[in-house]
Amino acid sequence: MGSGFSGFSLPMAALALSIAIAFVLLLDLTLRRGWPSTLPLAAATLLLAWSSTGLDRRLQGFHSLMHAAIAFRARVSDGVPTDPFFAGEPLFYPWFPHWVIGHAGAFVHVDPPTLFVTLNMAAFVIAVAYPVAIARELGASREASMFTGFSIAVGASVFSMGPVGDALAGFVPAWFEPRLLPMSKFGNVNANGFGLAALVVTIGLWARIDRRGPSAARLSALAVITLLHALTYPLTFALTAAAAGATCIWGGFRGGAAGFRQRAFPTCAMAAGAFLALPYLLSIQLGKSPLAGISIPGARAVVDELGIALSFLVPITVLVAGTRRQLPVAVTPGSSTGDLLAALAGLGVAAFLATGLALHSEYKFLTVAGIALAFWAGPGFARIWRRFSIGPLVLLVIWALPAASFIVAVPTLSFGRPGAVVPAGAWLDPSDPDEAGLVAWVRTSTAADSVFVDIEMSIPSYTGRALFVAPEPSDGMGYWIRPAAFVVEVFGQPIERFNERRLIATGLLRRGGPRVGAVADFAKVVGEAPAYVVVRGPGRPAFESHDRFVRVWSGQERAVFRLTEARGL
Q1: pLDDT tens digits for range 245-255
Q2: Is 214:256 a contact under the CB 8 Å cutoff?
Q3: DSSP labels, 227-295
Q4: pLDDT tens digits for 120-133?
Q5: I need a labelling partner for 214 at 20 to 30 A (CA). Which of 79, 144, 167, 187 fits?
C-alpha cells in the first residue's frame, strides 16, 4: 500500500506545521470571537484548490489520463461509451460522471481533469459545510458542529501521512496510508469527491426526515440523491444502502412497529432511487471479470488492514470516550440517525477488513466510516477545545498535520513524466511535438469508432478513440500500471480476451513485420470499424510494403497505417 508521500524534508515539515497551526488558530478565533463560521471552510477550500493544481491537473500520470480517456470516449460516442482501452467492449466502470464531465467540458471549453478538480472543490464545500448545518440542527453546539466539519476535512487518523506518518512508518508500515485523508479525494481527477458529498447529503436528509418527519419533498430529495450517488460512485452507495437496510431492520428489532416505521420511510426512498439506477448498476457489473471484483484478502493483507483500521479508530476512540453525555440525542445509538451513523461506521470498518479490491481501493470503505464517526468526534473536539490550554491546541494541530502535509506535498508529486501533458481548451495535448501532431491528426481525420493498435495507452487520453489493446508499453506515457492489470483488474475485461488481443497486437508490431495470421485475426475482430496501427521507431518499411496497410500519417518518429483490403483487389 505504498503512497509516494513519504520522505518529508525539514522545510516541508515546517511548512506543513505552520499551516496546521494557522488553521487551528483561525478555527479557535472563529469560535471565540464569533467570526463567520465560513472563514475556516473558505481557508481550507483555498488551500485545497492551490494544492490541487499540482496533483492531477498538470501532472498527468496513469490516474488523470485514465479518467480523461473515459470522459473523451463519452464525449465522442453516441449514447453509452464503450471501453476506451479495449475497443468495442462494454465499459465496466462507473461512466456517468465522466459522461457529464466530457460533455460539459466540450460546452465550456475546459479539459476533463481541470473540470473534475473544479467541481470537486464544490463537492468539498458540500461535504464539510452540510454536516455542520445538520449537526447544528440535531442539537449540537456551534463548537461541536464546526468540529464535525473539521474532522471530516482533516480525516480521522493522525498517522496517515506527513512527519507523524513518516515517524511511524518505519515501525508499522500499514499505518502510513495517506488515502485515508478525505481531503485528498476532493483534489482529484475522479468521482470520489462527488460520492462522498452524496454520502453526507444522504446522512443530512435522513436526519431531517428523522427530526421533522417524512414529507414528499424530503423523501423525493433522498430518492434523487440516492440515484445520483449510485450513478456516480457505486462503491460508497452500496455501503450506504446496506447501512440503511441494517438500520431499518435494527429499528424493527429494538423499537417494534414504531421503530421500524421511523426508519422505513427514508429506507424506501433510498430503495426507490436505487431501483431507478439498477439498469446502470447492472450494466457496469454484469460480465465483469472476477479479478476486478471483491476478493478475500490474504493473511498478510488482513494484518496490514488491521493496522490501518486501528490507527484510524484509536484517535476517534480518544475523542468519543467520555463524551457520550454531551452528544446530541439525535446522533446517539438508538435514534434513527444515530443507528445509521453506527451502521455506516461499523459496516465500513468490517468491509475494509473483510474485502480486497483492485489497486487496494478498499480504503474507501474506511473513509466512509470516518465521515460517519465525525458526527461523534465533533463534540469530543469541542470538549477538548473548551478547556483552552496549550495541550488541547497542540492536539488539534497534530490532528490537522496530515491534511496540512498533503497540501504541502501535492505540488511536488509526479505520478508520470513531468510536463508530459498540457491543457488545450476542451482537450489535453502531449507536450512532445511529434506526439502532438499524431494526436491532432487522429482528432480531425478519423471517425469516433476508429480502433488503434499502439504500444502506448495514450491515444484514448487525448482523442477519445479506442485502443484495440496495448501490449506491454515501451515507456507508458506516464502510465505506471501494466496494461494487463489495468484492463483486466481495473476495467474488468475478461483476461482470456485480453490475452488473445495482446497476441494479435504483438504479431502486428513485431520487428520483422506483421505476421500473416495476426493481420487476418485483427481484421476479423475489428470488423467494419476503421482500423489503424501506430508504428513507433523502426518497423515502417515492413508496413510500407504490406498489401493490407497504407500509410495515412507520418511524423519524425511515428507513423500510422490503416488496414485496408488487399491492394489490387
Answers
A1: 999 998 888 87
A2: no
A3: HHHHHH-HHHHHHHHHHHHHHHHHHHHHHHHHHHHHHHHHHHHHHHHHHHHHHHHHHTTTT--GGGS-B
A4: 999 999 999 999 99
A5: 144
